[in-house]
Amino acid sequence: MTRPSIVVGVDVGGTFTDLFFYDEASGALGTRKVPSTRSDQSVGFLDGIAAGGHPFPALAAVVHGTTVGTNALLERKGARTGLITTAGFGDVLEMRRRDRRQTWGLWGEFVPVIPRDLRLEVPERTLADGTVLAAVDPVEVKRAASILRERGAESVAVFFINSYANPANERAATAALREVWPNGYVSASFEILPEIREFERASTTALNAYLQPVVASYLGALDDRLREQGSEGRLLIVQSNGGVMAVDTAARLPVRTALSGPAAGVIAATHIAETAGFPNVITGDMGGTSFDVALIAGGRSVLAAQATIDFGLVVRTPMIEITTIGAGGGSIAGIDRGGLLRVGPESAGSDPGPACYGKGNRPTVTDANLVLGRINAERPMGGKLVRLDISAAKAAIDAAVGAPLGLDTPAAAEAILRVANSHMAGAIRLVSIERGHDPKRFALMPFGGAGGLHAGALIKEVGLASALVPRFPGVTSALGCVIADMRHDFVHTVNRPLEELVIDGLETALAEAARRGRALLEASGVALDGIETHAELDMSYVGQTHTVAARLPASSPAKLGPADIRSAFETAYRQAFGRLLDGIALRVLTLRLALIGRRPKLDLARLRPEGGSVPDAQHGERAVWFQGKPHATRIYDRLRLPVGAEIAGPAILEQPDATTWIDPDLVGTVDGFGNVVLRGKP
Amino acid sequence: MAGATPATDNMIDSVVLAVLKGRLEQIADEMDATLFRTAFNPIIAEAHDASHGLYDAITGDTLVQGKSGLPIFVGVMAFAVRATIARAARGDLADGDVFIFNDPYDGGTHLSDFKLVRPYFYDGRVFCWLASVGHWHDVGGNVPGNYNPVASESFQEGMHIPPVKLVSAGRINPDIVDILSCNSRQPISLYGDLNGQINALDLGARRLGELIAEYGAGTVGAAFAELRAMAAQLMRANIADLPDGTYSAEDFLDNDGIVDEPLKIALDLTIEGDRLVMDFSRSAGPCSGPVNIARSTAVASCYVALKHIFRDVPANAGCLDPVEFIIPETSILAARAPKPVGGYTETILRVIDVVFQALAHAAPGRVNGCAYGTINALSLAGYRRDGRRWVMFSFFGGGLGGNPEGDGLNHGNAPISTATIPPLEILEAAYPVRFTRWALRADSGGPGRHRGGLGAIYELELLEERADVFLFGERGRFAPPGVAGGKAGALSRFYYPQDGSWKSPPMASKMVGISLVRGQRLRLETPGGGGYGDPRERSAEAIRRDVRFGYLTPEAALRDYGVDAGTP
Fold first, then answer.
1. Could you tell me what percentage of chain A is helix, strand and coil, using 3-state DSSP and rounding each to the nearest 5?
2. Chain A contact for B425 (CB, 8 A cutoff)
3. Which of A469, A418, A420, A462 is nearest to A447 (CA)?
4. Would you say residue B332 lies in a domain?
5. Full domain range(s) for residue A645
6. Which of A569, A598, A627 is the last residue of a domain?
7. Which residues of A touch B207 (CB under 8 A)?
8. Which of A372, A383, A503, B61 has its CA 20 to 30 A from that of A362?
9. Does any CB of chain A come closer than 8 Å to the CB of residue B202?
10. Number of domains in chain A
């Protein structure tokens, strides 16, 4: 038997499971899209791989972008979780940093993921300098554990005050807890995030515990099933930082998957856009339930140090900055009590799905696209349905929107799209205009199955220069899984003035983190082109509480001296703020290390269409409604369009994973990588 | 778009306007972020007690304000810029100048807030002003941290600097820095914050220059005018939605810290079509202690209250165009030098509370119960074993009011602020204290159909030889009221050790010079928010949940709601 050579990227969304296949031996590529199975995502996952036509033993790696963790957080469907903490501090998680939901307006509650009757306190105390004032009694910890079990906790978090400075008490408590806790779901703050600031550390640890039973059991079952099917390939999971990790690391640190799915799409978009000569793009990932927006400027996505998943749910690990709103193909349209047309955030998902799927009767964005002729009723995505039910879609739109507003079907459908588009445009403005970027310098990269249907309207509404519709818009996140590098982040609290910094100790910590990172990379069994190390020190002037990241020279940290560190800090500080403060001492707060394992890059030129011609690609014509009247519109098989083809709107480009609608005032051009660039007609 | 676009007239393309609105707010936000990240004192760096914006060249009116700074500054900074414009009328204004001052009568708020104001020149003329305000750690006076609850003149509250040139045409005057430094107990912190504010202004000027190069000064100027008109129009529409009439409310401060008598804040609010008249004539006169506020500060706090209710109105001077203020010159709300104003935060919170209570009569569906209503400025100061002086100064949180949608938020920040509380681990790393409790306070939320959020209990122990303690709070005698039938939240409580037992301040919420020795503790219990709606309408399920979680004791459930929830 030949060596396994297939790498498959799998992105499970709310509606569809998308797959991208890459044969490392031959360079061949393939895509699939199958319906997601909500009750057990692994079913759709395995169906999709089987549909790809490669036998399971041929899989070299399965790389997965998952929304299991994200959904559990947003829908508050994590495990029943307990907390064991320092006496006097059980409410830290609920008190947050004394903030509120928004600057203006005083309404809104906060419900912590661990309720107050599951937050138990034990006597113990460590001071800020690391001195243990009162040791923890393991018996007390075990007693708290048994109370939490009685109250139904499945998972548990441990968080002690000042454990970043000296984890001895927390480590002892965690060890005692692990002796008695009946499963592996024990998250300790000194292991998850050994960094000063109690709320951020407590929150990240609590969310990890809250997610662990859900994410770990899902990933464990998935891994088992892959093996049962004969796969010996590694299962890898995309992290929120855009790197991938081994499945056992993900099961231990599920909080790092909080934005896994959307991150994969941004990785692919960055690579595709840069290759196509578009360093500035705004990604718009429109799936069945949500619209995720990220900004890529100068070829780089923005990494945030922490993210707030929802008010008060703070996760402090590096993450790609992504803004999500509830707008997708499955978003439900209706009239509210005030008589106003609303679309989303409620979604019909894939079950019952849009009215045209024949199960539900509430109209969605997909139904609107269908009755306007923008989606082909005879070629539904995902393969399970034979055709879409236009009359069901019309009936649903008429009943829920048309009749109350006194509009005929096409007018009601266009109104639904207008409202949905304006929501999405708002999200694009938020990441671009409101952060000071001029939209004219950016292209929109729509992806997800429905992104190409809305791209024209969005670029016009926001004032973007163009849209770059990738070759396989419906499976972009799955492609990102195949492209993403391995990455492991470490943090180590130093908290010493620079002159007291023991360089040997720093080097030992660096070497230790690097060793652990390499071990993780090697244990993953993934083929790597090389390993890069990025080391940074978070530093400040003594007295400041915020830090800047001073990048250490990658080459030889062994030769570090205080002067090198000072100069690295001054470079970073000057760049950030302009003015150095003479005569004030420096402090080193944290050492951060990122180990990046470069995976072999797939050559995007392989996506370039070979042959084909515009007349051959055209396979029909139908009426498409636009601004109140039907337009005779040519329909093209997108994958058969040649490089350089120019298609003037109105036109529809169809392909198995997505549909692109070219407005009458736009023109689409196929570039050398198979992308379609949409621009205004000259 | 390359090159300048000449403005044709005052009409500008709506997409360009949307872009410029975002770009201008971004400039102010970036200035905020620069100062937060470079400041030395945690009141700015962690609690975000600072603000930045762009102001009109001639009137000083607010054009654009950052979204991350303190809401109260949004209204007050225009007065600070106006004071600088008056000073600049001497005629020696040059490109690259920066003025500095902390005068609270012309510039608003209190002496701790240092304002840096810089003209932005274009084509040889002032195009607009950039300003930065930040709360410095210590500015002299009788009490470290400057919340002196017994000040009878502003001279006891700190140094007093009129608008003077800190930077002349790009060159810092080191003499001014020396004068400021030697008047502070924390000169290094002062130096760091001062530099952070200059950095923020530099950055603002650079970003504005880039914007003008791209869009042209005419277009940017037209955008300023357009944004103001939009804000005024939206505010008028909001007011017009409310029923005409006069609506009144009264509330009280505990005392002024010197004379132990309650001080009335009264508002008669009249809605006439799309105009609003806010008449404070029935309020107390000037007081001896530091809870007077300047007129500019009173106007700014009304702005904050209105913005909390009418969230859609952009933050610029246009908001107040349809609002008329009646504040007599003899009012506690129109203080003049040298009346002490150090505790201005307490008075403006009460002004905001009466705005909510008055509007609750007109529009109960849009208003919430009062928030906890005191910042509880607590300062501890002493010397370390090595002789270095230390001052720990912090504000504390409490409950927000119940509202039409749900219960009030537990442990939120005050309506005048977006300030977060410094992490206790940061406080313990910086000062010789350890907290022994940091918890929610049971039974503190005002009863109601939607109850007020809970206040907090903070307890801390001194780890050094000795320290002096100062507290400046409120709501020790008059609890945060509920609205629409909701009841008041719990009172503020403070305890310190004396002769082997816990004592509370004779003036209820204000205290100077308590001496603490190693191992002794302080305890602060902050108010919850006022409730919303009749408590008898609260669901039994919500009451039982509150008892199970310990938000409510079984005794209080019986007393406040008439529900026997058993033992938790």
1. 35, 30, 35
2. yes
3. A469
4. no
5. 608-680
6. A598
7. 436
8. A383
9. yes
10. 2
Full residue range of the structural domain in which residue B177 is found? 14-233
Q: Which residues lie across from A653 on neighbouring strands?
A: A636, A660
Q: How far apart are CA A110 and CA A96, in angstroms?
A: 10
Cβ <8 Å between B26 and A107: no
| Contact residues on chain A for B456, CB-CB shorter than 8 A | 91, 95
Across A286-312, b (16+ Cβ under 10 Å) vs e yields: bbbbbbbbbbbbeeebeebeebebebb
pTM given for the model = 0.88
Angle, CA A283 vertex, CA A278 and CA A285 arms, to 5°: 145
Q: Which positions in chain A touch B406 (Cβ < 8 Å)?
A: 107-109
CB pairs under 8 A between A and B: 189
Tell me if B533 is assigned to some domain. Answer: yes
Interface contact B412-A99, CB threshold 8 A: yes
Domain boundary among A545, A568, A598: A598
Q: What is the pLDDT of residues A49-73, one digit of tens each?
A: 999 889 999 999 999 998 888 888 8
What does the alpha-carbon distance between residue A471 and residue A453 come to, in Å, rounded to a whole number? 14
Tell me: ipTM over 0.90. yes
Q: How far apart are CA B530 and CA B444, in angstroms?
A: 9
- Collect all residues of chain B within an 8 Å Cβ-Cβ radius of residue A578: 199, 202-203
At what angle are helices B554-561 and B540-548 packed, to 10 degrees? 160
What is the domain count for chain B?
Answer: 2
Contacts with B531 from chain A: Cβ below 8 Å? none
Do B22 and A197 make contact, defined as CB atoms within 8 angstroms? no
Hey, which residues 360-389 in chain A have their CB within 8 Å of chain B? none
**Is residue B456 left, alpha or beta, with left meaning phi > 0 and alpha meaning psi from -120 to 50?**
beta
Would residue A539 count as lying in a domain? yes
Domain assignment of residue B187, yes or no: yes
Closest by Cβ to A98, choosing from B421, B426, B548: B421
Q: Classify A378 as helix, strand or coil.
A: coil
**pLDDT tens digits in sequence order for chain B, 568 residues long:** 333 333 334 456 665 776 688 778 888 988 998 898 889 888 888 778 899 999 999 999 999 988 777 878 877 899 999 999 999 998 889 999 999 999 999 888 999 999 999 999 999 999 999 999 999 999 999 988 888 888 999 999 999 999 999 999 999 999 999 999 999 998 999 999 999 999 999 999 998 998 899 889 999 999 999 888 888 988 999 999 999 999 999 999 999 999 999 999 999 999 999 999 999 999 999 999 999 999 999 999 999 999 999 887 877 888 899 999 999 999 999 999 999 999 999 999 999 999 999 999 999 999 999 999 999 999 999 999 999 889 898 889 999 999 999 999 999 999 998 888 989 998 998 899 999 999 999 999 999 999 999 999 999 999 999 999 999 999 999 999 999 999 999 999 999 999 889 999 999 999 998 999 999 999 999 999 999 999 999 999 999 999 999 999 999 999 999 998 776 5
